[in-house]
Write a structure and sequence with these properties.
By secondary structure, this protein is α+β, with helices and mostly antiparallel strands. The protein has two domains: 192 residues, 2-Layer Sandwich (Beta Polymerase, domain 2); 153 residues, Orthogonal Bundle (cca-adding enzyme, domain 2). The protein is built from 23 helices and twelve strands. The chain has an eight-stranded mixed sheet with strand order 1-10-9-2-3-6-5-4, sandwiched between helices. A two-stranded antiparallel ribbon has the order 7-8. A two-stranded parallel ribbon has the order 11-12. Strand 4 and strand 5 form a beta hairpin. Helix 17 crosses helix 18, helix 17 crosses helix 19 and helix 21 runs antiparallel to helix 22. The longest helix is centred in the C-terminal third of the chain and has 22 residues. The structure holds adenosine-5'-triphosphate and magnesium ion. The site of magnesium ion (MG) has 5 residues, from loops.
Length: 455
């Protein structure tokens, strides 16, 4: 197949036009792949058919195709089309235009959101900086130049994410060797990896997430620049990093994700205090690893996981250290804990944001750690009905398992719960008392000004 000049230009100076022209598109017919409509949500099918019926091209792309081919359940379904965001928006009453830097449309079906993106073209096609702009170091600041499907494929991150499924003829269109990479379980960046990471440093986090979640190996050239470029994550807004952190930790493979993040020095850019503590202190490493092991076990068992619990664990070594310092300087225990929490959180949110709805219960867990040591208090029974008691108790067990000597307190509170079994609420696990919105990174209901997302 012959690619357009614009596509060839995208590949830049490093590749000759002949090489660029040979970038393959493999069309896999229905009887040679395993994607069937029964695996695609009704909502996604509705979007695809409505777009097709209105005369537009529309494909299922990304994780929806990749995961289905791998026999996994996709987390969500994404659609790519040649209709502009405005045209898509006009076609679906239940849709919203989202984002400025990367405009797209969310079509909302109850709790399910189908993300519809218009085919993107290289920035050399831009007519004005309103459509496309890049920062000094190559970071993409605006990405709204529309193109065709071939061009769009080259703007996607990894080859296994450049797979397009059509409900018009049920073929899968695999670009840039994505089909072979999927069979070989290999993650390969499309184009020049360094350039693509500079355009959007979050792609480094995505590389690690997909490698861990899918058990794929990072192809050499894709892996090579990551350690050196990891500090570029500092340029990413903390709110966007927070969204990525949820996806990283709640993907069912938090332990291997964490190992890869540390290995590639990416973890330091996300959680500098936790990273430092884990490098220096066996206890911190154990605490965080045990937390991630529990998180994975809960997700595998189909249970929900609340981010405040693992976030509380990530920051705990530093909070505990600060609290001890303040106490040593004469501050009473409780105010010392509050100040330690203030400082640790203030420092943390400069890199990865933590919304208030999570930092409030994090503080509660930390503060309750002090109250759980007061086993002679007359108010021990009262504490059992504290809304955060169960989380704080689980946290105490975790600290004990990770090397703090708290066995006596753990035993006390275990017995208290046996002696005074309480209402169903407290019998639930630490992680079950959180509104569903804070759980696994399902797509949320769209916000009007969601300009976080960027390619
Ligand atoms: P999952 O939904 O399981 O996290 P996904 O591959 O579907 O995986 P999404 O974030 O839903 O990831 O994005 C859908 C698709 O959009 C991706 O498969 C990829 O093709 C493209 N994409 C998303 N983010 C980027 C990015 N930062 N750079 C380039 N392409 C991207
Ligand atoms: Mg997706």
């Amino acid at each position: 197949m012959v690619l357009t000049d614009r596509v060839k230009r995208f590949f830049g100076k490093k590749k000759s036009a002949t090489e660029a022209a040979s970038i393959p598109l493999k069309i896999v017919p229905r009887d040679e792949h395993s994607v069937s409509r029964s695996q695609i949500s009704d909502a996604a099918l509705k979007v695809l058919y409505r777009l097709n019926n209105a005369g537009y091209e529309a494909y299922l792309v990304g994780g929806g195709v990749r995961d289905t081919l791998l026999g996994l359940n996709p987390k969500d379904f994404d659609v790519a089309t040649n209709a502009t965001p405005e045209q898509v928006n006009n076609l679906f009453r239940n849709s919203r235009l989202i984002g400025r830097r990367f405009k797209l449309v969310h079509v909302v079906f109850g709790r399910e959101v189908i993300e519809v993106a218009t085919f993107r073209a290289p920035h050399s096609d831009a007519d004005s900086p309103k459509q496309a702009s890049q920062g000094e170091q190559g970071m993409i600041l605006r990405d709204n130049v529309y193109g065709n499907k071939d061009e769009d494929a080259l703007r996607r991150d990894f080859t296994v994410n450049a797979l397009y499924y059509s409900v018009a003829d049920f073929t899968v269109h695999a670009y840039a060797g994505g089909w072979d990479d999927l069979q070989a379980r290999r993650l390969r960046m499309i184009g020049d990896p360094e350039t693509r990471y500079r355009e959007d440093p979050v792609r480094m986090l995505r590389a690690v997430r997909f490698a861990a979640k899918l058990g794929f190996t990072l192809e050499k050239a894709t892996e090579a620049p990551i350690r050196e470029l990891a500090p570029l994550l500092e340029q990413i807004p903390p709110a966007r990093l927070f969204e990525e952190v949820l996806k990283l930790i709640l993907n069912g493979e938090a332990v291997s994700t964490l190992n890869l993040l540390r290995d590639y020095r990416l973890f330091h850019a996300l959680f500098p205090m936790a990273a430092q503590a884990m490098d220096q202190d066996e206890y911190a490493l154990k605490l965080v690893t045990n937390t991630m092991t529990n998180t994975d076990a809960r997700i595998r068992a189909g249970k929900s996981v609340t981010p405040y619990f693992f976030l509380a664990a990530l920051l705990w070594p530093r909070v505990r250290e600060l609290q001890a310092e303040l106490e040593a300087n004469g501050e009473p225990a409780y105010p010392a804990m509050q100040q330690a929490a203030d400082r640790a959180l203030a420092h943390q949110i400069r890199t990865t944001a933590i919304p208030k709805r999570l930092s409030i219960p994090m503080r509660e867990i930390w503060e309750l750690q002090l109250r759980l040591l007061k086993t002679r208090s007359r108010r021990t029974k009262e504490l059992l009905s504290h809304p955060r008691f169960r989380a704080a108790y689980d946290f105490l067990l975790l600290r004990n398992e990770s090397g703090e000597d708290l066995a006596e307190y753990c035993e006390f509170w275990t017995q208290m719960q046996e002696q005074y079994p309480v209402e169903p609420r407290s019998e639930r696990s630490s992680s079950d008392d959180q509104p569903s919105d804070d759980r696994a990174p399902k797509r949320r209901r769209p916000r009007r000004n969601n300009s976080n997302r960027r390619r």
